[in-house]
Amino acid sequence: MEKFLKKIVGILVCGVLASVWLQAADSPWDVRLPFKSATIFYEVSGMENGSETLYIDDYGKKEAKYRKTSGKVMYQIMKTDKIEITTPDWLYDIDMIGRTGTKITNPAKIYKQEYEKLTANEKKTVIANAEKMGKNAMGGMQATVEKNAATLLGYPCDKTTMMGTTVYTIHDTGIALKTESKVMGMSSKSVALKLEKGKVPASVFALPKGIEITFDKEADTMMRTTAKNMIDTLKDPEAMKKMQQQQKAMRTQRQQKPSKADKTSAASNEPTQEEIDEAIKEKMKELFGN
């Protein structure tokens, strides 16, 4: 479950918050792909070697990812055989080797439900705050986004770089065609070799037989709480002001015992990168809890 929860947090912090201002439409969680159905074939290399196949249907409302890889960890060969299935209602994570599986409510569904509870003015505030706070958060994580940075398999792609990882996604979508990561000396790469548009077999979205799927109540509850907290924060007209006040308070505290970097910042009256990072961490604590 811990691995599943980390995945959820990753989706929330790096995906939902940033994607709101990157992909905002009538609803920030309704992103229409440039094709109705497609199959994408990937080559995986680096710490793991193998393949991955992503099946997409109904403009991205349904996805099924099949991943088979092997690699060495501490001189031991580790094999992966996983299936991730996304439907409008559920997110399934299935380990074919361990013959286990879990499911939670699709995060997009939860966020959309919370978003649709808002008034028209609150929705505008959410979008505005998400743009400001999203940019602030990405700056704090030394992240950069370059729109239409490259063309892969005939599709214009946006380039996002953050914390040693570079991802090329089809413009204004979450579909990655190339991912490169180098963290703590460990490198990995996933590259789409082929994208075939056209109908995908219904069988790829069927749950494998003989595997009991367990509802992860703890993770689901955490997701719902987080969604409500995040929307409540973003609908507050004073949200950005409160974050700036947190930065100012931390700057004042550090000036009592300033470091070399803090002295430079104090002279310019600008927050240091460390202060920005801390403010973001505090905001994440408010959203996610301890």
Unreliable stretches (pLDDT < 50, length at least 5) are 1-24, 279-290
The succession of helices and strands, N to C, reads HEEEEEEHHEEEEEEHHHH
Binned strand content: 25-35%
Strand order of the largest sheet: 7-8-9-10-11-1-2-3-4-5-6-12
- What class, by secondary structure content? alpha+beta
**Average pLDDT reading:** 81
> Helicity, in percent?
25-40%
CATH class of the domain at 2-11 and 28-107 and 144-228: Mainly Beta
The CATH topology of the domain at 2-11 and 28-107 and 144-228 is what?
outer membrane lipoprotein receptor (LolB), chain A
What is the β-strand count? 12
In DSSP terms, counting alpha (H) and pi (I) runs of 4 or more, how many helices?
7
Second rung of CATH, namely the architecture of the domain at 2-11 and 28-107 and 144-228: Clam
The major β-sheet equals:
12 strands, mixed
The radius of gyration computed from the alpha-carbon positions, rounded to a whole number of angstroms, is: 21 Å
Q: How far apart, in Å, are the first and last alpha carbons?
A: 17 Å
Shape: globular
The CATH homologous superfamily name of the domain at 2-11 and 28-107 and 144-228 equals Lipoprotein localisation LolA/LolB/LppX
